[in-house]
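User: Teach me something about this protein's shape.
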Amino acid sequence: MRFAALLLALPLLAETTALDGKRIHYTITGTGSTPLVFIHGWGADHTVFAAQVAAFSRTHRIITFDLPGHGQSDPQPNPTMDTFVRSLDAVLKSTRASKPILCGHSLGAVVARQWTRLHPNQSRSLLLLDPAIYQLPPGAADRERWAEGIRRLAQSFGPNHEKAVRERAISVFLSNLYVDATPRDLRMSMLRLALTPSPQTAESTLAALADLTLWTEDPLPLPVLVLRAGQRPPPGEEVFLKSLFPKLTYQFLAGGSHYLMVEDPTRINAELARFLKAN
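Assistant: First, the predicted structure itself:
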């Protein structure tokens, strides 16, 4: 893959740590002192941040890792959001990363937010790229229906379906994350990557979002950048996110796809650099 190849040119130190007896793969590079930790989303791995690693390794200590069951990390049985948060915590402890900047994409943004909620005042700032952070309906019954919809979608990726059915479901799911201008080679690269985790990991990882305890709307008082991509901004999203992140900087990137950091790294890196300089 084009973004994986970019990493080969960098002086990466590849290491592993352990979570519940299973290996978590991570990399370290960069000459700066401030830790900048990248957290990928569903069906991806650390290589999707290759362009960001290359750009910010001159100013930060860059840490990437693979969530359990993704990339080079061992799978965990029935992983939950707690599993992913603890995997991040294991990497931070192994690398002795104090007061990190956490940059999460999609589901990785939920991991970053949840770790920060559980470890108050330990994150320096959050960089959330097209985050899977949603405003749920107010009623308990409606919230449970929303969660059940997530679980049903996740099940379509799981081991109870034949391979062809699973792969078709994943392909359709990914197609909804692109815009018309998204290059075909990027679409195919992300599809190949998304088909790599086991069916159990694919199902459990997405189903982790159905945990309604994740969606308590408690504010986090630290600087937060949200870069949202698409054809048009979700109605009311900026106001909602401001209630979660009072020190929010919100940028809508019209015409970008969900994999914005891969599709348009120059633009994304510029936005990240601007925020990091100011915060």
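Now, about its shape. Residues 85 and 201 are 15 Å apart (CA to CA). The longest helix spans residues 140-155. If you'd like, I can walk through any region in more detail.
User: That's plenty for now, thanks!
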